Amino acid sequence: MNINEKIGLNIRNFREKQGYTQIDFAEECQISRAYYGRIERGEHSITIETCEKICKTLGIQIKDLFYNI
Question: Any residues with CB less than 8 A from the CB of 58 and at least 6 apart, and which?
Fold first, then answer.
């Protein structure tokens, strides 16, 4: 598993714990659903700006995205 896949898995776990669907979460973060899906699957390297949007929506710190990496 590469680093993008690990980050995507961490994001998915946080998202699911908070009860968001992928579609609702992407809309809340103001990013496209397709782009968000690629992030979760580890197909796309996430930008710092997108990390910030995701973390604000989840109420977590950026360092939490890198847990167990």
Answer: 11, 14, 15, 18
Amino acid at 37: G
CA distances from 44 to 18, 19, 41, 47, 52 (A): 23, 23, 8, 9, 16
Is the C-alpha dihedral spanning 30, 32, 38, 40 positive or negative?
positive
Cα radius of gyration (the chain): 11
Predicted local confidence at residue 56, as pLDDT: 97
Q: Are 10 and 46 in contact (CB under 8 A)?
A: no
Angle at 64 between CA 44 and CA 42, to 5 degrees: 15
The model's pTM? 0.90
